[in-house]
Amino acid sequence: MYSPTPDDWHEANRARWDERVAIHAASDYYDLEAFLAGKDALRGFELAEVGDVTGRTLLHLQCHIGLDTLSWVRNGAAQVVGLDFSEPAVETARGLARSLGLSPERAAFVASDVYDAAQAVPDSAYDIVYTGLGALNWLPDVGRWAEVAASLVAPGGFLYLAEFHPVTDCLDDETGSRITYDYFSRDPWVDDSPGTYADFGAATVHNRSVEWQHPVGEVVSALAAAGLRIEFLHEHEATLFARYPALVRHPDGYYRFPADRPRIPMMYSVRASRPVSG
């Protein structure tokens, strides 16, 4: 039976993220010292698939503390805007931009719900609309997300999404080898785990979270229905963290199953463009 979405899902998720901003900023996981010294926060496949951003405008939806957003500036973007629903995250991102000597005209950050992005960002359209890993699971309605995101893509521009593959949430946590959970479930996943992925032992108070699983077909179809043309859908055999104990960290920093294990997709990426009006 379908489980209804809790009425306080938005408030619970925002309280959780607000509390974790300071923990993340101080963590080795984000390593702000290395970032400020020049370390690029973007993944290699993202840089390759997005391509040259020199001179282009870029909007980053659900940007958290802005490391990916600011990395696009380092890779040549003329102007970036990061949007997140957490005020502390946005303030941290603004502080990082100031530390890098970037003006608000070059790197701006806006506090807003992603569904309200079209009314919150300074421009009506961007050459690139980017959404990074670990974002869509916090949204109950991926169709509405696609409509908002697509509306902000300028003619001739594109949306790029990199995300964890939802099939990884269907396998058992102990071995990652048995199908345990329903891939097509529409039920919200309510959790109360303390800590955070950046510091599992951190003492936290606001631990309730509400998340959703969105099958890849649903995401791609939503983008197409919103008027974008799908250029590619790529599935990646690696992931960023030890999702299952059997995963092995490789020299490139990614985690993969051992060579004697069958592979599954653990991340995916989509690029979808808006045609130039004829």
Automatic annotation (TrEMBL):
GO aspect biological process, one term: methylation
Q: Which residues form the Methyltransferase domain?
A: 59-157
Q: Which organism is it from?
A: Streptomyces mutomycini
What are the protein's UniProt keywords?
Answer: Methyltransferase, Transferase
Q: Which domain of life is it from?
A: Bacteria
MF annotations from Gene Ontology: 2-polyprenyl-6-hydroxyphenol methylase activity; 3-demethylubiquinol 3-O-methyltransferase activity
Identification of the protein by name: Class I SAM-dependent methyltransferase
Q: What is its EC number?
A: 2.1.1.222, 2.1.1.64
Q: Kindly indicate whether the keyword Methyltransferase belongs to this entry.
A: yes
The record ties this protein, via SUPFAM superfamilies, to:
S-adenosyl-L-methionine-dependent methyltransferases (SSF53335)
Q: Name any one Pfam family assigned in the record.
A: Methyltransf_25
